[in-house]
Amino acid sequence: MHKQYSQDQSFDRIAEKFEKNIYGTTKGRLRHELLEHYLLQHLSAAPMRVLDAGGGTGVMSQTLAALGHQVLLNDVSEDALSIARQKLADFPQVSYHCGPLQSLAEQEPFDLILCHAVLEWLSQPLDAIDGLLAKLAPGGKLSLSFFNRDAHLFSNIIYGNFDYIDKDFVVPNRVRLNPNKAVCPAEVLRFLEAAGMQVVHKAGIRCFHDYVRDKSIQTTHYEQLKAKELEYGTSHPYVWLGRYFHLIAIKPGG
């Protein structure tokens, strides 16, 4: 697993703000609902051992626990896990681990590993993926979603943020809730292919929502936007335009 670099982001002391700013908005709601939709299409009904890596306040862990799966919720933020413990109090099959993944005790491999909206906060995202693959059982599935560097460039050109682009997206006073390092989908796909993983699903997340000129449409026409996301999000070229990229890959040998 990746080393715990100083550039990696933890949400201690701002976990409640993170919860409100992300999941209390249409962009956070849509991201979660789309990921949930795609994930559930690829899950077995049989009980699984699940690792929710960087699962924060437990939004996706709650979905999987409600389906009867055994979930280990991991995060480096104790504040985030405190919120999760309250939220998931009725799900005894959820356990918790605070700290980097490499500090997890040795245990049986997982049938499913989630790593959603985590890679963009890490200084070495590919090292993190390598560590996740080591914890995945043969035939197990890895669900990755991450902030899409290509879409990040596209959107900032549309907004006219040319100085920001020319500085390689680095600003002196970075907002803590803004990701550190957007990730290129093609780079991740090449890495997984080299590792022998079989990618069975690709989707753009928020291919249209973030680009509408009239932002009020995000609320007034939410269901219509979501329907179009689902209709086009897995097809070319829209799969590459989502502000987040989602993939599901299977480890060989199962």
Automatic annotation (TrEMBL):
Q: Name one GO molecular function term.
A: tRNA (5-carboxymethoxyuridine(34)-5-O)-methyltransferase activity
Functional note: Catalyzes the methylation of 5-carboxymethoxyuridine (cmo5U) to form 5-methoxycarbonylmethoxyuridine (mcmo5U) at position 34 in tRNAs.
Which species does the entry assign this protein to? Bowmanella pacifica
Spell out the coiled coil positions from the record.
none
Which family does the entry's similarity section mention? Answer: Belongs to the class I-like SAM-binding methyltransferase superfamily. CmoM family.
What is the name of the protein in this document?
A: tRNA 5-carboxymethoxyuridine methyltransferase
Question: Per its UniProt record, what HAMAP family does this chain match?
Answer: tRNA_methyltr_CmoM
Any single GO BP term: tRNA modification
Enzyme Commission number(s): 2.1.1.-
Question: Which annotated residues bind S-adenosyl-L-methionine?
Answer: R31, G54, G55, D75, H116
Name the catalysed reactions: 5-carboxymethoxyuridine(34) in tRNA + S-adenosyl-L-methionine = 5-methoxycarbonylmethoxyuridine(34) in tRNA + S-adenosyl-L-homocysteine
Is S-adenosyl-L-methionine a UniProt keyword of this protein? yes
Which keywords does UniProt give here? Answer: Methyltransferase, S-adenosyl-L-methionine, Transferase, tRNA processing
The question of whether Transferase is a record keyword is answered with: yes
